[in-house]
Amino acid sequence: MLRRAQRPRAWRRYAAAVTETERPQREPPVPPTEDRKFLQPRPYADTSFLESDAWRALRIEGEFVEGFDALARLGDAVTVFGSARTPRDDPMYDAARRIGAGLARAGFAVITGGGPGIMEAANRGCREASGYSVGCSIELPHEQLTNPYLDLAVDFKYFFVRKTMFVKYAQGFVIFPGGFGTLDELFESVTLVQTGKIEHFPIVLFDSGYWAGLLDWLHTRVEAEGKIAPGDLSLLPVIDDVDEVVAVMVESRRRMMEARAAAAAEEELRRQGEPIAGGRPTRDALGRTVRRGSPVHYPD
After folding, report:
1. What pLDDT sits at residue 5?
2. pTM strictly above 0.90
């Protein structure tokens, strides 16, 4: 009988004597399962899906969810647009700062793109007046830091998601002098109002000297050639006074609350089966008389 110390050596001699055909045959290899591929980093990991449209759609959905979750309880708010390149010694910086403060004292949160310039000024004024200051920043090829005057900062990768937040959670826009980004926000917002996609709320252009050339071209060429309807330019009031801007937003809020109360009363009557006179005139947030069921003009 072999001693325990001799068993390993004897076993090796026995194993060497066994022919290949006498050894147990292994099962042929099988293709890896999807679970196995998923859990193994190599060699089956393929990160190309991260650049697919399907995966991108999930990221976009995630940005919407994050934005809605962050801003849903914001309350009354006004969005302020303007150039990120406005220096702090520019008169427009001081005006945006004072408008931010005035809006905060009137009970509005202030939403901006979260960057420097006019955005910083509006957020700063809001914060200094103990208001709620919000910045919706965007990922850019060149780094742009958020300003230090934010109570809430929400980061976005996609412009259209960010634009949705500006529109969805605001009761009015204030447009300061700015470049392509500011013009983009201006024309998109006025198109949404003009086509009835959003409730009529004020879009105020601040600094008549800056906007005069654009408005003159819109009147003499675009309106004159029938590219927009007569009166569409009334959607863009131009104001140079800080207090007047705040007053416009306060009045718009009052009218909007009245319109919503009237709509709720009509809905209650409808549920109770009471007749409602069709075409009864009401007023929108800008104080213009409108009728239920009146057609909306769509641009060419």
Report:
1. 47
2. no
